[in-house]
Amino acid sequence: MKKKVLAVTLCLVLAVSVSACKKKEAQPPVPQTPGPMVPGQMPPGQMPSGPIMQGPLSPEGQQQVPGPGMMMPKGKSQIIIPDSVKGKWSAAKIIFEDKTAKKRQEYTVKLNSDFSVPNSSLKISIGEFIPDFRMEGLNLSSASNQPNNPALSIRVFEGGKQIFPPPGRQWGWLFAKVPSIHPFEHPKYGIILKEGVKKG
Asked: What is the rounded (10 degree) CA torsion for 47, 51, 54, 57?
């Protein structure tokens, strides 16, 4: 009788210890603690709440366009035309809109020249055409000679007074592919860059 009780007790002890071992093995892995987050970095597997957008940079403004959260350095920007682009473009085609008359007129204007818009009080000072606009720091340049991101620097005068860009800025910019970025704004007139005109 004592042997039977001892055998039953041993069986119970073995059964309990085996099930305890299985429970230890089945424990879920301990989640890893993430390291310190870098400012502006999203946690793994999490997407930003707003739309992801890409676009050219604002040449005269202080932020990337649209590029949320990215600030550009302050200071005076300079235009650097690379040798691969220099002298390859002679003019630009712009579209002038009379909002009151609801008419649009296309003009071909020479680079680095002044153009008085017919039947208006506006004069446009045309600067450089950049076929593939890029901004690095305060340097405005072209990544290539291909019209991937065409931009034209202009100043607009009305009655002898500069109205575009705002005071303190040397040039305003027109972007052919994204005309809504820092556009020329006027209650009566609109100016849009259509394309550049290659020399020859």
From this structure: -110
| Cβ-proximal residues to 7 (8 Å cutoff; 6+ apart), any chain | none
pTM score, two decimals?
0.65
Q: What is the DSSP string of 152-187?
A: EEEEEEETTEEEES-TT-S-EEEESS-TTSS----S
> 18: buried, middle or exposed (CB in 10 Å: 19+, 13-18, 0-12)?
exposed
The answer to whether the beta carbons of residues 127 and 152 sit under 8 Å apart is: yes
Q: Decide: 147 and 158 in contact? Cβ < 8 Å.
A: no
- Coil, helix or strand for 37? coil
Residue recorded with tokens 């020399």:
199
In whole angstroms, give the CA distance from residue 88 to residue 106. 22
For residue 187, the tally of other CB atoms under 10 A from its CB is: 6
What sign results for the dihedral spanned by CA atoms 65, 70, 72, 74?
positive
Q: How high is the mean pLDDT in each 10-residue block of the chain (200 residues)?
A: 52 50 49 44 38 39 37 73 97 96 97 96 97 94 97 96 91 95 94 96
